[in-house]
């Protein structure tokens, strides 16, 4: 078949040049194969996809693979400075890092801990078995639990000891469904007390932990999904019992106990408004020291940066990125989130903030509610749907907060992005409904 191309002639008129392609008989079949083959491959792939999509429930092995893929470093936190929004504080750059628990505070539960028990208040044994099936626990495992597991029923609570092999074998989506049921009951608090990872940040959190590759693989296999942006790990005891040595168990606990936090620095560019920044960071009678300091740094040619910790009140500087000492008795000062947030400007700290009655009194007397935080030291109270206040933190700048996430001595004082703090408490209080922050400002500031 001729292919025609228009060419200009020397006379100015357009003429047609006919180009004829001639094929021998043996070339025609080869040409047909070359044209048809790609379409046959596409048709095969589409058919395979259609067959796969008909399988509505992936096998456990496939689920484990999906969990492993979700845990890979596909999008790890960048180990570089990220620029925040500009405000009266100036402009802050931040970088995520993970802080270790001190070696002295690494607690490894003994391997002879009582077996894990799954407790179901108000359930009969038959209802528990049906619930396990509905969560996707394999039928052979359910039958084995029915016939040979240790069951008990006390005060209307039916419990079963599933055994470590079953716990460790659960596929990711089955674990997610089952633990969402178990965590609703306080009887399972020891069994289901998870920590969380962002998808893609697991390898980053475990960096230089010294864990064996097999231990890292085990951790990833035990992760399960909550919501759209969190991977949870709850099976501490079964995982630890499966590890080969005390040293590896200690490394495992230290690695998974790392806390995600933020390093923040303030930019002092040549055009920075030092007066405005000094008013922000010097609130609470501290401007006399902050202004000369920032002014001196502002004179540095081409500008400089300053760790935000240098601009925070004495109490915060003395505690940030540190762990409290372990309490020696029950009468020791409880250095929890309320004690920390309400003492933001106090030096020395007021230990009466251990008393929640006193906390309420001070909140009603000395604070007023605001729409959103915009001043250093604004108080943040996180509330559950039933209006219970479950956490307190103090605002720093941009979206950064100063927080201590629990009274435990393994919980350091840290800076966090607001979203990370809210997600931490969504995991800690899974039955709290939608958590909401409320904001307050001290009347004297």
Any chance you could write out the topology, listing elements then pairs?
Elements: E1 3-8, E2 14-19, H1 27-53, H2 60-71, E3 82-83, E4 92-99, E5 118-121, H3 125-135, H4 139-148, E6 150-154, E7 157-161, H5 164-169, H6 172-182, E8 195-197, H7 202-205, H8 213-221, E9 224-226, E10 230-233, H9 236-241, H10 246-256, E11 259-268, H11 274-281, H12 287-298, E12 304-307, H13 314-319, H14 337-342, H15 356-366, E13 367-370, E14 379-383, E15 389-397, E16 400-404, E17 413-417, H16 418-428, E18 436-442
Antiparallel strand pairs: 1-2, 3-4, 4-11, 5-7, 6-7, 8-10, 9-10, 11-12, 13-18, 14-15, 14-18, 15-16, 16-17
Helix pairs in contact: 3-4, 11-12
Short account of what is shown:
Helix content is 36%, strand content 21%.
Write up this protein.
This protein is an alpha+beta fold and 445 residues long. It folds into three domains: 3-53, no CATH class; 105-256, no CATH class; 312-445. It is 36% helix and 21% strand. It has helices spanning 27-53, 60-71, 125-135, 139-148, 164-169, 172-182, 202-205, 213-221, 236-241, 246-256, 274-281, 287-298, 314-319, 337-342, 356-366, 418-428, and strands at 3-8, 14-19, 82-83, 92-99, 118-121, 150-154, 157-161, 195-197, 224-226, 230-233, 259-268, 304-307, 367-370, 379-383, 389-397, 400-404, 413-417, 436-442. The chain has a six-stranded antiparallel β-sheet. The chain has a four-stranded antiparallel β-sheet with strand order 3-4-11-12. A three-stranded antiparallel β-sheet has the order 5-7-6, with no helix packed on it. Helix 3 (125-135) packs antiparallel against helix 4 (139-148). It is elongated, with a radius of gyration of 31 Å.
């Amino acid at each position: 078949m001729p292919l025609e191309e228009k060419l200009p002639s020397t006379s100015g008129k357009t003429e047609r040049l006919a180009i004829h392609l001639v094929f021998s008989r043996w070339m025609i079949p080869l040409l047909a194969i070359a044209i048809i083959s790609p379409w046959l491959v596409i048709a095969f792939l589409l058919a395979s996809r259609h067959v796969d999509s008909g399988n509505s429930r992936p096998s456990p092995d496939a689920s484990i693979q999906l969990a492993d893929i979700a845990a890979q470093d596909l999008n790890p936190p960048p180990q570089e400075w990220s620029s925040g929004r500009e405000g009266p504080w100036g402009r802050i750059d931040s970088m995520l890092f993970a802080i270790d628990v001190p070696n002295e505070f690494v607690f490894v539960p003994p391997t002879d801990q009582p077996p894990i028990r799954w407790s179901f208040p108000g359930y009969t044994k038959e209802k528990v078995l049906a619930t396990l099936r509905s969560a996707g626990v394999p039928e052979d495992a359910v039958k084995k639990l029915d016939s040979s597991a240790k069951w008990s029923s006390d005060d209307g609570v039916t419990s079963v000891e599933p055994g470590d092999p079953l716990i460790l074998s659960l596929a990711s989506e089955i674990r997610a469904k089952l633990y969402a049921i178990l965590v609703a009951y306080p009887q399972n608090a020891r069994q289901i007390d998870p920590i969380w990872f962002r998808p893609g940040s697991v390898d980053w959190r475990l960096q230089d932990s010294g864990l064996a590759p097999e231990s890292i693989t085990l951790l990833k296999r035990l992760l399960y999904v909550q919501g759209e942006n969190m991977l949870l790990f709850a099976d501490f005891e079964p995982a630890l019992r499966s590890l080969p040595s005390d040293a590896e168990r200690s490394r495992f606990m230290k690695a998974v106990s790392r806390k995600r936090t933020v390093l923040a620095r303030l930019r002092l560019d040549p055009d920075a408004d030092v007066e405005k920044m000094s008013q922000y960071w010097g609130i609470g009678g501290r401007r006399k020291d902050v202004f000369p300091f920032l002014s001196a740094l502002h004179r540095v040619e081409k500008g400089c940066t300053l760790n935000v910790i240098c601009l925070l009140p004495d109490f915060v500087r003395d505690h940030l990125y540190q762990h409290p000492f372990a309490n020696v008795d029950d009468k020791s000062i409880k250095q929890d989130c309320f004690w920390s947030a309400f003492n933001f400007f106090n030096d020395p700290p007021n230990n009466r903030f251990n008393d929640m009655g006193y906390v309420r009194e001070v909140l009603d007397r000395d604070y007023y509610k605001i729409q959103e935080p915009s001043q250093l030291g604004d108080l943040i109270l996180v509330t559950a749907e039933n209006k219970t206040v479950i956490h307190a933190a103090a605002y720093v700048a941009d979206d950064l907060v100063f927080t201590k996430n629990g009274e435990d001595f393994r919980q350091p004082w840290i800076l966090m992005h607001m979203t990370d703090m809210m997600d931490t408490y969504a995991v800690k209080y899974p039955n709290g409904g939608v958590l909401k922050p409320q904001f307050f400002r001290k009347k004297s500031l």
